[in-house]
Amino acid sequence: MIPLQRWLVTLTSLGFGLYHPTLGLVMLLQDKYHEPLLVIFSIAIYLAVLVPSIAAYSSLRLPIAQTLANLVAVGTVPLLMQAQLDLDQKGFATWYVAAMATLLTVTAIRQYVWLAWAGLAFLWIEVLVWHGPGFIVSSGLIGALLLVAAGSGLAIGLASTTKAAEALAAQALATARKTAAKSAARSERQGRLKETLRGTLPMLRKIAAQNGNLTVSEKLDAHLLEAELRDEMVGRDLVDALVRDAAREARRRGVAVSIVDDGSLVGASQDLCERIRFKIAEVLNSTSTGKVTVRSPKGEKWLVTVMVSQPGSESAEVFLKLPGDF
Questions:
Q1: CA–CA separation, 273 vs 288, rounded Å?
Q2: Nearest CA-CA partner of 282 in 310, 315, 261, 308
Q3: Distance (Å) of CA 303 to CA 264, 273, 287, 314, 323
């Protein structure tokens, strides 16, 4: 459905465009032409290309086929009309000049500026060859030039506005996607945190029932639960099921694991986050001793660092910097 604003523009443009063939019909009724059928045929050609050029097509830019049809009309209608006019006929008898200028203006507004100017040049040539330079003013060629120039300026403004609107829409879409991704990630983290908290309840009940007197195995389980809860709270986007399982098993082997998300993954694609988490899990699974520290620092060229260090060693055994194109 065409919006009200476009209806107004369409009706106004059609009203202006139909004014010229109306003048032609008036001249026809006054017997100003030698061949009335050629006049009717010329008006029919003009209307056949003007109406769709103004009222059809949803996009601002005309299809190239319609644009070429407009240029064919500009090349045909003046020849048909001039073939039946006396050289001294002026005024409304040359309605077709303003009509072709209107058609070329519509062509320019609908994003074919250079083709419109090419058509205008051809229109000038047709009229000047027929009657000579002295006929420029009385034939309406000056008005045609000004009309196409105005249409070209409007076309440039519309193109700039359209590009700005498209850029704004793309930015809004990207923002909406990021917001949706953040909301989804936040919901997922909250769900994981609730699940982890639910998993701690049996252990908390056991600690309360036994007054803290736990076996070695139970103490290890409590330690692992506490570490997993901490990972969910401070690890955020760095933690998924794969990383959680790898960290649990690494801790069971005696590896100290620290996972801290400082926010560098905010806005990163889901695919990139998954690749990074897979690499973190890979390092955790391959480490049997020492400490694994995973961070996502803000303000760096890389998104995540993964470091494996051993007690008493001054240098890291593994130190990975995972960039944004990882």
A1: 25
A2: 308
A3: 6, 10, 22, 24, 5
User: 206 is written with which tokens?
Assistant: 């056991």
* Phi and psi torsions of 255, nearest 5°: -85, 135
35 phi and psi, to 5 degrees?
Answer: -125, 95
Tens digits of residue pLDDT in 169-224? 677 666 666 666 666 666 666 666 666 666 566 656 666 666 666 676 767 767 77
Tens-digit pLDDT profile for residues 91-144: 667 888 889 999 999 998 888 888 999 999 999 988 888 777 777 777 778 888
- CA 150 to each of CA 125, 155, 211: distance values in angstroms, whole numbers, following the listed order: 21, 9, 89
Structure tokens at 247: 């960290």
Query: Does the predicted TM-score (pTM) go above 0.85?
Result: no
DSSP state of 296: E
Rounded CA-CA distance 155/112 in Å is 8
The tokens of 268 are what? 């990163």
Question: Helical H runs in the chain?
Answer: 4-29, 36-55, 64-82, 95-109, 113-131, 136-139, 141-209, 216-235, 241-252, 270-286
- The region that residue 236 occupies, defined by phi over 0 for left and psi between -120 and 50 for alpha, beta otherwise, is left
Give the single-character DSSP code of 93: G
What is the total residue count of the chain? 326
Domain residue spans in the chain? 4-169, 231-323
Q: How far is CA 71 from CA 46, 50, 106, 261, in A?
A: 11, 11, 12, 63
The whole-angstrom separation of Cα 250 and Cα 255 is: 5
